[in-house]
Design brief:
245 residues; Immunoglobulin-like; Barwin-like endoglucanases; 2 domains; 6-stranded mixed β-barrel; 3-stranded antiparallel β-sheet; 14 strands; 3D_dom; 3D_YorM; 3D (Asp-Asp-Asp) domain-containing protein; hydrolase activity, hydrolyzing O-glycosyl compounds
């Protein structure tokens, strides 16, 4: 169900003497609760073509001014600034849809997570239409996480960070979980660990932009996109050192 929010009160009062410390929040669970088969490294190779950086510059800018935190009621509440030209917004926690907000011209908008978990990544994007068509979806905001004071603070994996991951491949022709059309340079990640919008360099593939998730994409697995054809099969499952760009 869609929820509509207008900010009527300052968040200051919500952040006084929280009864639930962020360290005491339950661990964030992977969204897929079914069995996940083991995905052993099988080897493989790329197609010899380097994926270029994925371009999001033509999309609506990400909402700014994200501010809030964990309240005495045990909920995470935050506000963000209106984006010119936006008709609606979607908020996410770890790549899972959290709230839909329509734009009535209000200068700030509010999101509430009634069931927060430890270390969650909160992100928001604007839409140029009240739908989830790929063309309407704006740029995803940076991640925000609770800090030691239970306030939300921006979070980004430092450039140059390396990850020793298993890298598989997929070729689904559809919208990604974020909402962009799947394509070269898109990858699926465990959004509890790697927030959407993170850019990675994958040896043998090129650049990938985290904009998707998957039922079997959990922990140390990243799925890189190939067009329909043999390339995804030829890739196999490789253990590679990825670099945050």
């Amino acid at each position: 169900m869609r929820s509509f929010a207008i900010v009527l009160l300052s968040l200051t009062s919500l952040l006084v003497a929280p009864t639930t410390a962020s360290a005491a929040l339950p661990a964030c669970q992977h969204f897929y609760t079914g069995p996940i088969p083991d995905r052993p490294v099988s080897g493989g190779h790329g197609n010899g073509t380097t994926a270029p950086p994925y371009d999001v510059s033509s999309r609506l800018p990400a909402p700014s001014g994200i501010s809030g935190g964990l309240g005495a009621d045990g909920k995470v509440t935050f506000t963000f600034n209106r984006v010119a030209g936006a008709k609606a917004y979607r908020a996410f926690r770890n790549g899972q849809a959290l709230q839909w907000i329509s734009d009535w011209g209000q200068p700030t908008l509010q999101v509430t997570d009634a069931s927060p978990c430890a270390g969650a990544h909160y992100q928001v994007y604007a839409m140029s239409a009240e739908d989830t068509s790929a063309s309407s979806i704006g740029q995803i905001s940076t991640s925000y996480r609770l800090d030691s004071s239970n306030h939300l603070a921006s979070y980004r994996m430092p450039v140059g960070t390396t990850l020793n991951y298993r890298v598989s491949a997929y070729n689904d022709v559809a919208q990604t979980a974020l909402g962009y059309n799947a394509g070269t340079g898109i990858c699926a990640v465990d959004a509890r660990i790697i927030p959407w919008g993170t850019r990675l360099y994958v040896p043998g593939y090129g650049h990938c932009y985290a904009a998707d998730i998957g039922s079997w994409i959990k922990d140390d697995i990243v799925d890189v996109w190939f067009p329909p054809g043999p390339d995804a099969d030829n890739w196999g499952i490789q253990r590679l050192t990825l670099t945050v760009e």
